[in-house]
Amino acid sequence: MGAGATVDELTNPPLRSQQRIKDQQQTSPGVTPSPASMATTSTTTTPTTTTPPTQSTISTSTSTPPPNNLAVAALDGAPFTESQSRIEFNREYNTALSAALSSLVSTFVGFPFDSVKTRMQAYKFKSVLDCVMVTKKTEGISGFFRGVGAPMISVSIVRTLSFSIYAQCKATYTTIANSVMGAGYVVDPAGPIPLTEDQLAHPGKNLLRAIPTYFMSGFTAGGFIAMFSCPFEFTKLSTQIEMLMARASYANLPDSEFTKTYVPKGTLESAKDIVRRRGITGLYSGFRYHFVRDALGTSLYFSVYESSKQLSRMYSPTQADPGPLVIAISGGLCGIFSWAVLFPIDTMKSIAQRDVLTRRPGEVFKPRKFQLLNPRMYRGLGVSVVRTGLVNMTFFSIYEPLFKHLMASSERKAATLEA
């Protein structure tokens, strides 16, 4: 992965294995691809003897990607040299660091919108403006950032896990599909694997075959991270609507008196209070809605993001890699589309969790029915679309250049050490 690496290198199948083969071909004299391995390309490659890698060979290795079945064969786990291990570690470390830092910034930027969205889902306001004005009047500017601590931590971890799990699942599902349907059936037009003449002539068919892989990989990643993120989301919601619940309990007090006398718990204290009163399982209130939202949402998220980038490349006269504008637009679209489709489920999750919070521990109550066509299920949709578009445009716009910069810096340090 050179200085020109992008998020494609995280999400294309199976990149870690492909990088191993590239490095092994550079460090092992006389490595020759097998005849079967060359069946996936339309040209014949003459085997050559390579020399030990230098900085220039490492940085330009992306220009000679390996065939499909060589990448699959690397899954058997060939041994790493010290140099290859360092490259692998740098890739893993820089991916995690880029995702974490980008998530911190994008979550903070979009949190006020999320706060307004949650309040409108859980309580009735005349409009978005009414919700904003009431919050500003009764809680001040800090009210819009109430509970921001938990999601900044959880979202950063969830993003990193989501990208990593998605990449691994995508590699696995691609291998399975090709073993069932035939080698080269699923290819990634944006990936480093050379395409045959037929594949180059039918980019639309390649994309259609790859979409189910994107979808299933996203579903697996989203379902897994739901188990981790649900407690954080429930705590965040509790903190966001804490003042609204307390005000309903002290309806006889004017807002000015209530604001002076009531002291909010904060994120950590809210989590402790939930565990103290409802046990650890209380943190998973509304989990079924949370699971469906995250699993389907992540499926749509990655499917739209991958497809948007590939479509831009397909219709580009030069078929160049996506630039900053395409990355930002693709990020915004994947967030907006997935959130708009699943917004009623998210609303139902907020209502179910609010019902738990407003009742005594152990109190039995009848669960609400899910009403897809009820207008109430779409309260806050507008502000939510703005929020998710802004958050994901910010995330990918930061992630891509930051990852490139960190990888370039790692390569420079490696070259200095080897010199």
From TrEMBL:
Which spans does this entry mark as compositional bias, Low complexity?
A: 33-63
Q: What is the membrane topology noted in the UniProt record heading this document?
A: Multi-pass membrane protein
Q: What is its main location?
A: mitochondrion
Give the Pfam families listed for this entry. Mito_carr
For bias kind Polar residues, which ranges apply? 14-31
Q: List residue spans for each Solcar repeat.
A: 90-172, 209-311
**Annotated region described as Disordered, given as residue ranges:** 1-69
Q: Does the keyword tRNA-binding apply?
A: no
What's in the keyword line of the UniProt record? Answer: Membrane, Mitochondrion, Repeat, Transmembrane, Transmembrane helix, Transport
Localization terms from the record: Mitochondrion membrane
Q: Does the keyword Lipid metabolism apply?
A: no
Q: Where are the transmembrane segments?
A: 325-345
What family is this? Belongs to the mitochondrial carrier (TC 2.A.29) family.
Name the chain's protein: Mitochondrial carrier domain-containing protein
